[in-house]
């Protein structure tokens, strides 16, 4: 794509779009780069500026605006032939020093730089840069510490967990076998099996009762 006065600004934020449009009004031409940025060329064919799609970052804005403002300041200065003084083409301010005139046009007629933190407006790049240092902690916060890795479970815990899992598997397998066994029995056979289990439980209860009575007798003897 060749340079044009009507570039495609799709994907550019408001600050980038405004900067490109303002520059085109001054007679610049533009073309899109391979990485979506915009390359601007001044009427003199020498001054160049690159505009990124996102200029919200103050540093990116300064990088793009600096050559544009320098060119505008340079071409806004005229010389009176009769006395050799420099005169501002925007407000008529006069001085006999060219650098003083460049400083005047930069500070008085360039767009103010707005602090992204406190929204304060500053007229010169140096004042803007010094002001940003007051927000160093906000603009350049320290990196967040990486989370500590979770400790791996101890070998003993892993062994206990493994044994518990094996026991659960064995119990589940035994229950499944019993369920299949009882399901295959006839009703009469199942009742007979239940009676046997009831007798066994009764004997166990009797033995437990006898054991408890024996312990009580021992306790009474010890108290004598």
Structural account:
- Among the domains are: 1-73, no CATH class; 154-184; 189-224.
- The chain is 54% helix and 11% strand.
- It has 7 helices and 8 strands; from the N terminus they run αβββαβββαββαααα.
- The longest helix is centred in the C-terminal third of the chain and has 37 residues, at 187-223.
- The radius of gyration is 45 Å and the shape is rod-shaped.
- The protein has 224 residues and is mainly alpha-helical.
- It has helices spanning 14-25, 58-75, 98-109, 125-133, 136-139, 155-184, 187-223, and strands spanning 29-32, 38-41, 48-51, 77-79, 86-88, 94-95, 113-114, 121-122.
- It has a 3-stranded antiparallel sheet. The chain has a 3-stranded antiparallel sheet with strand order 4-5-6. A two-stranded antiparallel sheet has the order 7-8.
Key traits:
three-stranded antiparallel sheet, 224 residues, mainly alpha, single chain
How do the strands and helices of this protein lay out in sequence?
Blueprint: H1 14-25, E1 29-32, E2 38-41, E3 48-51, H2 58-75, E4 77-79, E5 86-88, E6 94-95, H3 98-109, E7 113-114, E8 121-122, H4 125-133, H5 136-139, H6 155-184, H7 187-223
Antiparallel strand pairs: 1-2, 2-3, 4-5, 5-6, 7-8
Helix pairs in contact: 2-3
């Amino acid at each position: 794509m060749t340079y044009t006065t009507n570039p495609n600004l799709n994907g550019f934020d408001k600050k980038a779009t405004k900067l490109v449009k303002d520059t085109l009004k001054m007679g610049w031409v533009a073309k899109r780069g391979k990485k979506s940025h915009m390359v601007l060329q001044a009427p003199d064919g020498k001054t160049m500026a690159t505009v990124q799609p996102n200029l919200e970052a103050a540093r990116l804005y300064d990088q793009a605006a600096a050559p544009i403002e320098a060119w505008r300041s340079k071409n806004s200065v005229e010389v009176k032939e009769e006395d050799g003084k420099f005169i501002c083409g925007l407000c008529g301010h006069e001085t006999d020093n060219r650098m003083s005139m460049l400083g005047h046009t930069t500070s008085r007629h360039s767009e103010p730089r707005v602090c992204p933190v406190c929204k304060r407006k500053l007229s010169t790049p140096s004042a803007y840069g010094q002001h940003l240092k007051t927000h160093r902690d906000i603009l350049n916060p320290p990196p967040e510490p990486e989370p500590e890795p979770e400790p791996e479970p101890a070998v003993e815990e892993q062994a206990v967990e493994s044994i518990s899992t094996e026991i659960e598997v064995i119990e589940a397998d035994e229950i499944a076998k019993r369920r299949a066994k009882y399901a295959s029995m006839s009703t009469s056979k199942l009742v007979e099996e239940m009676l046997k289990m009831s007798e066994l439980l009764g004997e166990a209860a009797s033995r437990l009762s006898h054991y408890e009575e024996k312990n009580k007798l021992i306790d009474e003897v010890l108290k004598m």
